């Protein structure tokens, strides 16, 4: 048998598990019963954005879906399946769409870089660029434009969540569910609320209107 070059990760796991048990001897026994998270996190796959650590939550407290550039695409059945389970089965009350500044996927889309198959996925970000091109062009530096695009991408994905039949049906039946838009600063470790906390179709329409006014879309 070849030497396991990832033994250090297994060692770290054992230390972590022991630390958890030292703090709460019954923790893992309780965890095997049933997960009851109150939050669904839709975030970027970037290794620098460890979602549960950012908000200091323990295993079992947050349901998670991650992909490149934190996109919510209406035909992505991976994301839709996660949303359906979170909303209908787990009955989460909050969906957090969280992007981050200096996102490699967003930058690749903005600079039209080519990395292969992922280019097709990032085409959705380029659609956002085209939609808000005039607004993005109003910023003098590329870093400012990139930061604004990261924020715009979060807003557009929040709207995609709200426009999905899973969320709309939940709202129609009176289920308590709020969709939030956040962004994370890799450079300082802080999360920022983008002022998007939507609990109804009316909230979404108002937020879309305000965004269009901000970016100059008629």
Overall shape:
globular
Q: Could you name the CATH homologous superfamily of the largest domain?
A: Carbonic anhydrase
Percent in strands: 15-25%
Largest sheet: 5 strands, mixed
Overall pLDDT score: 94
Rg result: 19 Å
Q: What's the SSE pattern? A: HHEHEHEHHHHHEEH
Number of helices: 10
Report the CATH topology name of the largest domain.
Answer: Beta-carbonic Anhydrase, Chain A
CATH architecture annotation name of the largest domain? 3-Layer(aba) Sandwich
Poorly predicted runs: none
Helix content: 40-55%
Characterise this structure.
By secondary structure, the protein is of the alpha/beta class. Helix content is 50%, strand content 17%. It folds into 2 domains: 1-33, no CATH class; 34-215, Beta-carbonic Anhydrase, Chain A. The chain has helices at residues 7-23, 27-31, 51-54, 77-89, 104-110, 118-131, 133-137, 142-163, 165-172, 201-215; strands spanning 39-44, 62-67, 94-100, 178-185, 190-198. The protein has a 5-stranded mixed sheet with strand order 2-1-3-4-5. A hairpin with a 4-residue loop joins strand 4 and strand 5. The longest helix has 22 residues, at 142-163. The radius of gyration is 19 Å and the shape is globular. The N and C termini lie far apart (65 Å). The model has no long low-confidence stretch (mean pLDDT 94).
């Amino acid at each position: 048998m070849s030497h396991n070059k990832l033994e250090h990760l297994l060692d770290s796991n054992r230390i972590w598990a022991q630390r958890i048990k030292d703090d709460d001897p019954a923790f893992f026994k309780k965890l095997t019963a049933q997960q009851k998270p109150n939050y669904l996190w839709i975030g970027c796959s970037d290794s620098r954005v460890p979602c549960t650590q950012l908000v200091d939550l323990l295993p079992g407290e947050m349901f998670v879906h991650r992909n490149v550039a934190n996109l919510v695409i209406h035909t992505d059945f991976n994301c839709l399946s996660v949303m359906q389970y979170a909303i209908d089965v787990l009955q989460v009350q909050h969906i957090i769409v969280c992007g981050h500044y200096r996102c490699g996927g967003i930058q690749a889309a903005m600079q039209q870089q080519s990395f292969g198959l992922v280019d097709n996925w990032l085409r959705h970000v380029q659609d956002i660029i085209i939609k808000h091109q005039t607004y993005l062009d109003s910023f003098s530096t590329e870093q400012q434009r990139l930061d604004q695009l990261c924020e715009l991408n979060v807003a557009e994905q929040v709207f995609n969540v709200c426009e999905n039949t899973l969320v709309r049906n939940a709202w129609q039946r009176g289920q308590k569910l709020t969709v939030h838009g956040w962004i994370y600063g890799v450079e300082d470790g802080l999360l920022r609320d983008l002022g998007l906390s939507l609990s109804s179709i009316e909230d979404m329409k108002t937020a879309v209107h305000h965004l269009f006014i901000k970016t100059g879309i008629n």
